[in-house]
What we know:
- With 326 residues, the chain is an alpha+beta fold.
- It has two domains: 40-112, no CATH class; 132-322, Sandwich (Protocatechuate 3,4-Dioxygenase, subunit A), CATH 2.60.130.10.
- The chain is built from nine helices and eleven strands.
- Strands 1, 4, 9, 10 and 11 form a five-stranded mixed β-sheet that branches. A four-stranded antiparallel β-sheet has the order 3-2-7-8, with no helix packed on it. A two-stranded antiparallel sheet has the order 5-6.
- Strand 7 and strand 8 (268-273) form a beta hairpin.
- It is elongated, with a radius of gyration of 34 Å.
- The protein starts with a helix and ends with a strand.
- The protein binds benzoic acid (BEZ) and fe (iii) ion (FE).
- Benzoic acid (BEZ) is lined by residues 112, 115, 139, 141-143, 233, 252, 285.
Amino acid sequence: xxAKPVTKKISARKPAAKASAKKPTAKKKAVKKPAKxxxxxxxxxxxxxxxVQSRSGKRADKRTKFLVDTxxxxxxxxxxxxxPTMDEWMYGINYLTRVGHMCNDWRQEFILLSDVLxxxxxxETLNHEKMSGETxxxxxxxxxxxxxxxxxxxxxxxxxxxxxxxxxxxxxxNAKGKPIAGAxxxxxxxxxxxxxDVQQKGIQPDMNLxxxxxxxxxxxxxxxxxxxxxxxxxxxxxxxxMLTALDRNPNRPAHLHFMVxxxxxxxxxxxxxxxxxxxxxxxxxxxxxxxxxADFTTVDDAKRAAGIGLPNPFRMVExxxxxxxx
Length: 326
Ligand code: BEZ
Ligand code: FE
């Protein structure tokens, strides 16, 4: 008894199916292809770089566009090769946020990050390729201050009396070997405990181990300081965490910073390194260039030592600086 209506229902559908089959024009419309669209606006993994780069308008600043387009190209290539997970990408974002929060007037964690990734040295070196025997440059580092005290040549910049005394002397010359009279020589270094004065306010005397000298008419400069020793870069922040995760050391080999300037010449930012430091080949910021490793000699000359106010024997380094024309 129940089967009858079901049979009726099935047979009732048949004419309807037949009716639609009788309308060939309607069927044709349903399979019509959509109009072709320009898909270059939409993001695809394959064309990701092109899609992002093509968004800039006609009024884009040319150099900015070039820099950002190049960054996008390499960042997209990085993501496609390294394939970070969503958690790893968020870790990266949070990491850079921590780097930013670590920055203040005395701490520039972004520069430190660029330093330990070798980027500061790459930018520095590509911008200062030396062709004619000029002194090579290296990283500035975060501990330069522009208002250090000016001294007469021969002055002692070691105000805490720590460390082994060292006499530093030399000349500032141009590429033809002519003296640059009046050149400004700014120097700074860490103390015997491995800290700069600005890292130990209230512990070290202000302006300890930094000073500004002026080359005399023959280009000579000289000063007394302390034999530099190696020290760790600030590693109590996110950059230090990265070094630990990579099993890298935070040390910089022993050095003395120089910034030398004179009208008509390119400002030179450089260091001199001591030759006996165990960290020379493992500088945390890749700042060592072979030409910047100096000879520190020991002088045994009581009269000379007395003349410059040093105990005999004493350490000494002779370091000429050659500037490039601006
Ligand atoms: C420095 O030599 O003072 C220095 C350079 C780069 C990073 C940290 C410190
Ligand atoms: Fe330094």
